[in-house]
Amino acid sequence: MYALDLEVIFGRHWLFCATEAEIPEPGDFVTVEVGSTSVIIVRDDDEGVSALLNVCRHRGSRIVDDPCGAVGNFVCPYHQWTYRTDGSLIFAESSQPGFDRSAFGLRRVPVRSLAGLVFVCLSDEPPVDFDEVAGVLEPYLAPYRLAGLKVAHQTDLMEAGNWKLVMENNRECLHCDAGHPELTSAYFPFIQYSPEDVTPRLRALYERFLQAESRLASAGAAAGIPSGSHRELDGRASGYMIRHFPLDGDGASFGMGGKPISRKLVGEITDPAFGDMSLHFQPNSWFHFCSDHAVVFRALPVAPDRTLVRTTWLVHADAVEGVDYDVDTLTEVWKATNDEDRGFVERQQRGVSDPGYLPGPYATVEDDVESFVTWYIQRMQYHFGGGRDHLGLVPRAAAQ
């Protein structure tokens, strides 16, 4: 099943891998490992974003070992074949007569930047609905000007659980009230709640949430943010959800009690109490955009029971550490939350591996978990010829 997940889910869908803020200058690069595949994401000399397989076209050596860095050209350490940042081959010593360098550039990987968020697909035939999804999402994200932010901090957390458990845990907040005291000092735990789902214990908090939601709607309208949310987490290849979500307390950011955590507001945002623009993208990412920073997450499997979760905090390009923000305050809430989620996932991995495990029904507020599982099953059905994609296209294997 792990090999099938790598082939079908991570090999044929758009994966969030990095932000443009991580590669601000020509020659800046990051590497991404997906199973045995290594991809270089690089700002090329024309200041575009390229994605290249990290495999020399001569004898197959890995070209780059570092997770990030900056280069003028890529030089294979084995025999010094040399490539421009767009992947084109410019030097190959002792080549045979008639050798055509233009035919031996680094293999390119489909890559798209969505408002500064970089997605790659390892298939030569990526899902065609990305443009449609991007058209929905870009008006929500444009005011944050994410491509012009800078990386303030980044952490990697290895979770001893299958990647699907990591994503299921992320896709619900039923556990938040008891499990994330730092997060819920700012974050209302009402993802996919309807009024009838609110228990008596949560009624006062829910009323405060509704009031904050009304205030945020006015702030969003003033900033030109589209009204309402969009939720298509299943039923299409590039499943997503976006919602402008209020924050508790000061309503400004993910500081304790909703307090600001950077003095400089990002992009075109002028109202500090601008809540949280929350984005989920299948199969491996989630995002939170606030008035003063953004925090982005990606999950990539490294073994059947190991998942690497990377968290990146972005701030205004001119924000100065120690003056406008400090890293400890910036990262306090999500570092604690990530560690708590790691514990939940690892406990669940041990439990579902127990031969005595029998699953129970979903709660009424676990819709997004069910949507993730439904999306996964749909994509597997499509792979095996048992379904259609959202455009009504049958898989190639079924058509044949």
UniProtKB/TrEMBL annotation:
Keywords: 2Fe-2S, Iron, Iron-sulfur, Metal-binding, NAD, Oxidoreductase. The lineage of its organism: Bacteria, Bacillati, Actinomycetota, Actinomycetes, Micrococcales. It comes from Nostocoides japonicum T1-X7. It holds the Pfam family Ring_hydroxyl_A. InterPro entries: ARHD_Rieske_2Fe_2S, Rieske_2Fe-2S, Rieske_2Fe-2S_sf, Ring_hydroxy_dOase_asu_C_dom, Rng_hydr_dOase-A. This is Rieske (2Fe-2S) iron-sulphur domain protein. One of its GO terms (molecular function) is iron ion binding. Its cofactor is Fe cation. The keyword Metal-binding applies. The keyword Transmembrane helix does not apply. Residues 14-120 form the Rieske domain.
